[in-house]
Amino acid sequence: MTPSARVQAAIELLDQTIEGAKSVGAPADRLIAAYFKQRRYAGSKDRRAVRELVYRAIRECSEVPTTGRTAMLALAESDPAIAELFDSSAHGPPRIGKHEKPAKHGVAPQWLVEALDKSGVSAEEQAAMLGRAPLDCRVNTLKAERDLLELPVAGEHLAAPAGLRFEAGTQVEQWEAYRSGQIEVQDHGSQLACLAAAAQPGETVIDLCAGAGGKTIALAAAMQNTGELIACDTDARRLGLLGPRSERAGLTNTTRRVLNPKAEMEALSDLRQRADLVLVDAPCSGTGTWRRKPEAKWRLTPKRLERFADLQDHVLDIAVECTKPGGRIAFITCSLLDAEGADRVEAFLERHPSWTAEQAELPLGRPHGSRNAKGMRLTPFHDGTDGFFIAILRSA
Q: Residue 183: in which H helix or E strand, if any?
C-alpha cells in the first residue's frame, strides 16, 4: 500500500468506527481485524501503519466526527505530512477542498470533559488518558518468581510485586513463558487493584464480575491455590475463556458460575454470607482505559453513564448478600468519573449504614473521595497505569 492508500484505508475504518460508536457496535480493534482479513494483500507494515492512523485520528477528535474523512482532516491539521497524502492518487483520498472543515479537536465530548473536571481530573490528566499504553505483565507466582524468571526481553520492575513492563507491541504471546503460564498480560493498575483486595490463602473469595478472568487468576495466585475461588459473570462466552487460561496458569482452587441478570442470587444462594472477600470489578464506562480504547469516549452518553451507575449499585448489593460478617468487598472501576467511584461508595454506605469504607494500602495512587467514602485513585498521568477507583468496604 502507498502512504496515500493507507490514509484512505484509515478513513474507511474511521467511518466504520464512527458508525459503531453511534450504534454501540463492534469496537475499533475488531473492525480493523475484520477489515484486513478481507484484504490479505496488505502486509504487516501496512496494517500497523493504518491502525496507528486510525487511533491517532480518534485521539485527535473530541466529539463524534461526522465522517472518517473529517476525523482524518483533524489529524492532518495537526500533522502537515498527512495533509500532503490527500493527493487524489489512484487509491488515495481526494485533495482537501478549500471549504472542508475538520472534526473538532479535543480530549472528549464537552459534557464528558465537564464531568471529568467535576471529578477532579485536571486537563493535564485528561490529556494523559489518551496517550499510548505500555505492555504490562504479571509474573504468575504459582509457577515462577519475578527475580529468577528469564525472558527474551528484560522487563522493567513495577511497584506491584509481580509486575513487569515492556514496550507497547512486544510479542509476549509468542514467548514460552507466556505459553507455559508463567506470565500473564495485565495492566499495572489491575495488578494493584488485586493487591488492594488482599485475598489470603484459605479464604472463600467470589470474583463477581470476572469476565475473561484476568483478576481471577491474580487472586488465585495470591491465595496460593488454596481456599475456594468462585468466578462469576452473566456473559457465558467471556467466562468460558477463563477455562483454558486457568489451565495454563495452573489454577486448582477455581470454579465458574454463569449468572442470570437480575436473578443472580439464584446461582449464588449457597454462598449467602459465606465469602471472606467479594471482588466487584464492576461494569463501567471505561474512561480509565482510553489509552487502549480511545473510541470509548464517543460511545458514552449521560444516559449510559446513569445505567452503569445503577448496575454498579445492583452488583454491590449482591456482594453484600454474599459477604460474611466481618468480610469485605473490593469495589473497583476502571473509571475516573466520580459517578462510578466515590459517589457509588457514598450511595452504598447510605443503603448499608453498618458497613464502612477503608482506604486501600497501595504503593501508588492518591486518596480520593469524601471522608466517609474513602478510596484510592490511579491515573495514567500520575501512576502510569490505566485509570482506576478502588475502595475496600467492610461488613460489621
A: strand 183-185
- Does a structural domain hold residue 130? no
Q: What is the pLDDT of residues 199-211, one digit of tens each?
A: 999 999 999 999 9
Cell of residue 181, nine digits: 503460564
Judgement on whether residues 88 and 214 belong to the same structural domain of the protein: no
Domain contains 121: no
Residue 290 CB neighbours (<10 A): 27
pLDDT of 85 above 90: yes
Q: What pLDDT digit, counting tens, does each position of 254-294 carry?
A: 999 999 998 999 999 999 999 999 999 999 999 999 999 99
In terms of DSSP H, where are the helices of the chain? 3-23, 28-37, 44-60, 68-78, 80-83, 110-118, 123-128, 176-179, 188-197, 214-222, 236-240, 242-249, 265-268, 296-299, 302-322, 342-351, 380-383
User: Taking the complete model, does pTM exceed 0.85, yes or no?
Assistant: yes
Give the CATH number for residue 370.
3.40.50.150
Read off the pLDDT of each residue in 58-79 and give the average, rounded to a whole number: 96
Whether 123 maps to a domain, the answer reads: no
| Structural domain harbouring 364 | 188-394
Are 72 and 140 members of one domain? Answer: no
Q: How much is the pLDDT for 39?
A: 86
Supply 224's cell numbers: 496460593
Residues 364 and 313: beta-carbon distance below 8 Å: no
Residue 199 and residue 252 share a domain:
yes
Q: Helix, strand, coil: what percent of the chain each, to 5? A: 45, 15, 40
Domain count, the chain: 3
Q: Is residue 77 part of a domain?
A: yes
Q: Please give the positions annotated as active site.
A: 334
